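Before the break, one more example. Copy the sequence into your notebook; we will annotate it together after we see the structure.
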Amino acid sequence: MSDQSQPKLEMLERAVLELGTELYNLKAGVAKNQAAHDQFVKVIRGLKQLLDEKGLITGEDFDAAVELGQAIETFASHAEHSHYQEMEKVKKTGH
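Here is what the structure looks like once it is written out:
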C-alpha cells in the first residue's frame, strides 16, 4: 500500500467503528423504547379492564374513544400538513 492510502484506510476504519457504535446505541434505544411501549400497553389494558369491571365505561366504549382520538389526531395532522403546503405555495408565489 502506498503512504497516501494508509491514512484513508485508517479514516475508513474509524468511520466504520463509529457507525457500529451508533448502530449499537440505536439498537439499545429501540429495545428500551419497545420495553416502555409494552409496559404502557399493559397499563392501558389494565385500565380498560378496571373501568369495564367497575361499570364506568365498557371496553367497546373505551376502544371507540381511542379510535376517535386517533381520528382527531390524524385529521389535525393532515390539516397542519395542508396548511404548511399552502404557506409554502404562498412563499414561492411571493418570490
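The chain has two helices and no strands. The chain has a mean pLDDT of 89. Try to locate both features in your own notes.
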